[in-house]
């Protein structure tokens, strides 16, 4: 059982994804089970949200790439003696309660940390099965950004936007107003408004709101910013 004295983080090394427990039960299923586990790991790595699979006491069974980033970059979560724990000791009781209640079949939504490091987490119960006699908990991490920069850049290239127009689009996606975008880019507001008109024409968007809704609905482009997976 975890306690506050154990909140010393350990490094999250670049390694193969942890295997799913119970992916096969015998030698005759080993090859097929390993292939399925690898495929599922690759699928989870393409998700924009961090996903962790833990036991009722927080033991880490699997983490996708965004989740490993959160664990390894001084975020709201860390890895402690193989267990997922909050970085702040004052969050430990809240975290353990949410995980334990999820293990009992109750979904939970909670927040760890505060300010820029705050992270919303959904704890989703995964019932026990023949292969997994103990219930597991799926922790789905909130996204740090509404739209990833790489996704915006990819969209800008496919729509034929100029570099200046792409900068304006990034600012709009961050919630900035044209005047604030102009200040950040060091240009006149009239220039930004002209660029917004050009962006709308190239993307065939009737309004800025329609444009931002379209960008927000884009699938994430995650794999391009990761190092190749080890073989």
Automatic annotation (TrEMBL):
An annotated GO BP: regulation of DNA-templated transcription
Top-rank lineage group of the source organism: Bacteria
Any one Gene Ontology MF annotation carried by this entry is:
DNA binding
SUPFAM superfamilies cross-referenced by the UniProt entry: C-terminal effector domain of the bipartite response regulators
Q: Name one Pfam family in it.
A: GerE
Check the record and name the SMART domains matching this protein: HTH_LUXR
Name the chain's protein: Uncharacterized protein
- Native organism: Piscinibacter gummiphilus
Q: What is the lineage of its organism?
A: Bacteria, Pseudomonadati, Pseudomonadota, Betaproteobacteria, Burkholderiales
